[in-house]
């Protein structure tokens, strides 16, 4: 699923204010070696943290419906994970980098919630929207300064981008066939003796009709 989220992010970053700009989008770690190899204006989206959003965890099972809305399979609820990206702009001058970061911000801000129709196949099949936050309050354990130190580079302006993505839980399993008949009630004697007619069963509506007939007979005046 992570590579599909990368695809979603790439489509976002090459649209909006950056559409037809020719800006390259990279997901490599922005190390000193990478920066030395870069030869064009680039938006770098480095995935630096993956962790479960335990507040969204659900229990139980979910139905899987066919085209007739009949339950054919069941599955466990998906698990949600926060994918955190460090988004930076790389050009020849700080002023151009700031303009590029501004364009990235203008492109991402309208997309607070990505509907299923904007997601690739497997994510779309879950029918769930994906929340997106950009430049919000950082809640991860590592600070951006620590990340830059680990990358061996110098601190530079960056946007913290977080997508909270559902990951399907496996496996699915087949559901039982749909119920097509009503429930039945088998009658036995209070002493545990078998019913007068072995295998005889009464449907609930038949039992109710018999009870109503007995009550009617009990309240009917004696003709004598």
From TrEMBL:
Residues 4-181 form the Pvc16 N-terminal domain. It holds the Pfam family Pvc16_N. Residues 208-218 have a biased composition (Low complexity). InterPro entries: Pvc16_N. Residues 187-224 are annotated as: Disordered. This is DUF4255 domain-containing protein. It comes from Streptomyces pyxinae.
